[in-house]
Structure formats: structure tokens, C-alpha cells
Design brief:
The complex is a heterodimer of chains A (313) and B (193). Chain A has 313 residues and is an alpha/beta fold. In chain A, strand 5, helix 6 and strand 6 form a beta-alpha-beta unit. Helix content of chain A is 36%, strand content 14%. Chain A has 2 domains: 141 residues, 3-Layer(aba) Sandwich (Rossmann fold); 129 residues, Aspartate/ornithine carbamoyltransferase (Rossmann fold, 3-Layer(aba) Sandwich). Chain A is globular and about 55 Å long. A 5-stranded parallel sheet of chain A has the order 7-6-5-8-9. In chain B, the strands form 2 sheets. In chain B, strands 3-2-4-5-6 form a 5-stranded parallel sheet. Helix content of chain B is 32%, strand content 24%. Chain B has a single domain, classed as Rossmann fold. Classes of the chains: A alpha/beta (313), B alpha/beta (193). Chains A and B meet through helix 1 and helix 11 of A and helix 3 of B.
Chain lengths: 313, 193
């Protein structure tokens, strides 16, 4: 395994299998009365969140705590960041405090990579701008493998605002790496022009692809990133690309409905569809803890290099 | 490399341990927990032997001790994780821990910590196929298949058909010139791997 997890390009197919297999053991820990093991006792994990996030931060926090690591939550509001401290100075401070791993979410693509130049600890990307969100992709791969028994040859449709979605990028890279067939579906304005180079297919018509999917993965319509000119109206989006009951009927028997959350019920997914048995959105959340435990364990559980490689300081 | 146990030796040793277990422990409330990834297979065989002797069905679980190891972060890569599957409550039960090789005792220390997190066993006993000595902790086995004198740097391996395709136990001499100071770390990895 690479020393950091910044992108799905940092892991090989073998790494992915190792991560998912390890996560399976941590799933078992999550079913115990005492959901905690001493594996990372004495290590410090810092959650450095420059962007709002509930589930990812809590998931990482719970993962680290269940491994007995000490967790420090550092969010931009109510910290020295609101006083104007730069990422670099914050990083150096955390470095001086002896953080073994830093989990970072930031609105700027590439900031986790920047961080690796300043700190000695392991860096885990918990979402950077419109770039990547590799831990989400891994928990999605875990959920698909768990439910459908394989990843190779799976037909996965990723539907919605692919252009702004770090989840879609990481998931596409991960799925293609594992030999799945990925189709990106959405309005032409929201499909990145370079998508064909990812090794995926593109469609602008959801109804046409639904019958050929094992997994229908819906992306959140990101109103906070939406400059509104990408599609005429939310209502039209919902009509053309929202998953409703009648569209669910087009999906093959046994296929899954997934969503990275938080959902906009009534926009990309109808409320009653989100609550169908084939929708595994809650599983994704539960599996997220196990997958993040596996990642922290695999990154922090080996001997850490020489420690002298922190860059130009 | 020399063979210390053949398939028949292992079969006889397990049969004897099974007899000792039913003689000394009540089968009521008895459970077997094998340490992955050889001890679990030995535990299943012991349970079959006990079923033949006493007609009692003894529940069998498998325990992975990786998360409880005391050398996490000291090996180059994070130690490989196996599955833990103990589909019964150990609280109030007599738990017989089953492992292939007893060496430093560190694996057993980890296993007892892991068991403690799973419930409060009434008592914990230890059954091993091979005791090779060189304990680093005050731990001893209650049931032993064979005591094998070894050098600290030697590599002792139990093979089981389910994993290795054959039954047996072999000793490989440690590399010449290995000092006692550096041997335990290496041997400790082998023992709990």
C-alpha cells in the first residue's frame, strides 16, 4: 500500500481486495457488544475538515475510536483557521503535535497532496474539491461486493452531476480498476468532457440504460456547487434523471440502488424509492466505518518509513 | 528441515487431547475457540473427536488475534487480518483456546485479551499441538500434543490439510549466527502469523 490515500490511483486492484477483505473483519468487530479493538492504541488521528460534513467526519471518528486511536477533530469554524491561518501553518502545528494520520476534507482539489509535503504522518483524502473521495469509493465497492458477490463485470450506472462529483470520479476509477462496466448518465452539461478517457461509457438517457444495470448509483444534485445554468430547473432534472417507482421497475431483478448521501429526496431519488429493500444506502454508511477502520489499520499498522521525508518545511 | 510430526502423530495427539479434555472438563458449557489460521482447524477436529467419545456437540469458534498483537506498527506491513467468528456467547462458559504452536506466549496473551472483550468466560484453558518452549510471558498449556525442544531461532510450523494440503509439523533450523537479541521479534511474527 501507498503511504497515503489521496486518490483511487494510489491503490492497485490487489490493494483494493486487501482493503475490502480487511474491512470484512472490521465489520465483525462492529457487531460485537464491545465494538473496540486495541490495534492503534497510542496513535493520534486528526480529522481536519475545511468543509461541512457530518457522515464522513463521524464515520472517520468512529473508525479511529474503534481502533483505540486518539482522535482530534479540527474543523475550520471555531478554530485558528477562522482567524486566517493557512493550511500549511495548520499542518505544521498538527505535525508538531505528533499526528500519526491526518484525514482532510477541503474545498480545494489537491490540498491533501499539498499536505503530504508538509507533514510526516499519513494523509487520507476525505474529499477534495471536485477531485476525489477515495474512501467513499472503497465503501461503495465493499457494499457492491458484499451484496452482489463480485466487482468484475458488474454493470454500474453513475447518474447525475458527474462533473462536480469527486465521488463519481473516485468510484469510476475504482470500478474500472476492478473490471466493472461503468456508464455515466446525466445531462450533457454535467458529464465531464474527458470522461471517455476514464474507461467508461456515457449516456444521456437514463431510461435507456436502466434495464442493463446491476447497480444504479445516484449522485446528489449539489445545489451548493450548482451555478444553476447546468440544467434548466430542478423539476426538469427530477423528471429526466430522478429515480422514481416507474424507473425502478426497469431495473433488472436483484439490482441495487445506491447513493452517497445526503439525499435530496424528490430530486435525484424519490422518497419511497430510497426506502425500498434494494436500496442499500444505510449499508453504505455502516460499511463506511469498517472500510475506514481497514484503511487506518493498513496505513498505520505497518512500520512507518524513516519519518524524515517531510518536504520543504 | 526435519519433520517432527506426521499425519498419524497429529491424529493420535488430537485424540489423546480430546480424551484429556473430556476427562478433566465437563462437556456441559464447554466451547472450543481456535486461533486463526491453523488453530481453528485443529479446534474443529477436536470437537469431532469429543463428539465421537462423548456424543456431545461442542460449539467451535474461530478467533483472529491480529488487532490485539503487541507488535502492530513494528512490522514492515500491517499484519494480515483473518476472520473472527464466534457465534455463541462465551460468558459463563469454559473456553478451550486451541492453537498450533505455543512459543513466546504472546499470541495467547493477545487471544485472552480478545476473549475478554467478547465476554466473561468462566475459565479459559489452553490446548496446543506443539509446545516448543522459549516462553516470554508466564503462560503454560493445559493440553499439549507434543513437547519439542527447539533453538530460539528455529522455525516451527504445523501443517493442516485444510490450509496446507497435508498434515504434519516441521522444524527448520534458524539461520546460523542469528543472535538471541534479534531472534524474538522475528520468531514472534511467525508464531502469530
Amino acid at each position: 500500500m501507498n503511504e497515503h490515500l489521496l486518490s483511487m490511483h494510489d491503490v492497485t486492484a490487489d490493494d483494493v481486495i486487501r482493503i475490502l477483505d480487511t474491512a470484512e473483519s472490521f465489520r465483525e468487530v462492529g457487531t460485537r457488544v464491545i465494538k473496540k479493538v486495541p490495534a492503534l492504541r497510542g496513535r493520534t488521528v486528526v480529522n481536519l475538515f475545511y468543509e461541512n460534513s457530518t457522515r464522513t467526519r463521524i464515520s472517520f471518528e468512529l473508525a479511529a475510536k474503534r481502533l483505540s486511536a486518539d482522535v482530534i477533530n479540527f474543523s475550520s469554524g471555531g478554530s485558528s483557521v477562522s482567524k486566517g491561518e493557512s493550511l500549511k501553518d495548520t499542518a505544521l502545528t498538527l505535525q508538531a503535535m505528533g499526528a500519526d494520520a491526518i484525514v482532510i476534507r477541503h474545498s480545494s482539489s489537491g490540498s491533501p497532496f499539498q499536505l503530504t509535503r508538509w507533514v510526516r504522518g499519513h494523509v487520507l483524502n476525505a474529499g477534495d474539491g471536485t477531485h476525489e473521495h477515495p474512501t467513499q469509493a472503497l465503501l461503495d465497492l465493499y457494499t457492491m461486493r458484499e451484496r452482489l458477490g463480485r466487482l468484475e463485470g458488474l454493470r454500474v450506472g453513475i447518474v447525475g452531476d458527474v462533473l462536480h462529483s469527486r465521488v463519481a470520479r473516485s468510484l469510476s476509477f475504482g470500478l474500472v480498476k476492478m473490471g466493472a462496466d461503468v456508464t455515466l448518465v446525466g445531462p450533457a452539461t454535467l458529464i465531464p468532457p474527458d470522461a471517455p478517457q476514464w474507461g467508461v461509457q456515457v449516456s444521456y438517457d437514463l431510461d435507456e440504460v436502466l434495464s442493463k444495470l446491476d447497480v444504479c448509483y445516484l449522485l446528489r444534485v449539489q445545489t451548493e456547487r450548482q451555478r444553476l445554468e447546468y440544467f434548466p430547473s430542478v423539476r426538469e432534472y427530477a423528471r429526466l434523471f430522478g429515480l422514481n417507482r416507474s424507473r425502478v421497475r426497469l431495473l433488472p431483478e436483484g439490482s441495487l440502488i445506491m447513493h452517497p448521501g445526503p439525499m435530496n429526496r424528490g430530486v435525484e431519488i424519490d422518497s419511497d424509492v430510497a426506502d425500498l429493500p434494494q436500496s442499500v444506502i444505510e449499508d453504505q454508511v455502516t460499511n463506511g466505518i469498517a472500510v475506514r477502520m481497514a484503511l487506518l489499520y493498513l496505513l498505520l499498522g505497518g512500520r512507518h518509513g524513516d519519518g524524515g521525508e517531510a518536504g520543504d518545511g | 528441515m526435519s519433520r517432527i510430526l506426521g499425519p498419524d502423530d497429529i491424529r493420535r495427539a488430537l485424540a489423546r487431547i480430546a480424551h484429556e479434555i473430556v476427562e478433566r472438563e465437563r462437556t456441559e458449557g464447554l466451547v472450543l475457540v481456535g486461533i486463526a489460521d491453523r488453530g481453528d482447524h485443529l479446534a474443529l477436529r477436536l470437537a469431532r473427536e469429543i463428539a465421537t467419545i462423548e456424543g456431545a456437540q461442542i460449539p467451535v469458534g474461530v478467533l483472529d488475534i491480529t488487532f490485539y498483537r503487541d507488535d502492530i506498527g513494528m512490522t514492515a506491513e500491517a499484519p494480515e487480518v483473518h476472520e473472527t467468528r464466534i457465534p455463541f456467547d462465551i460468558t459463563g462458559r469454559t473456553v478451550i483456546l486451541v492453537d498450533d504452536v505455543l512459543f513466546t506466549g504472546r499470541t495467547i496473551r493477545a487471544a485472552m485479551d480478545a476473549l475478554t472483550d467478547l465476554g466473561r468466560a468462566r475459565r479459559i484453558r489452553l490446548a496446543v499441538l506443539v509446545d516448543r518452549g522459549h516462553r516470554e510471558l508466564p503462560i503454560r498449556a493445559d493440553f499439549v500434543g507434543k513437547n519439542v525442544p527447539t533453538q530460539l531461532g528455529d522455525d516451527v510450523r504445523v501443517l493442516v490439510t485444510e490450509v496446507d494440503g497435508e498434515d504434519g509439523a516441521v522444524v527448520q533450523d534458524g539461520p546460523a549466527g542469528r543472535t538471541i537479541r534479534e531472534a524474538p521479534a522475528v520468531a514472534g511474527q511467525e508464531e502469530s502469523a
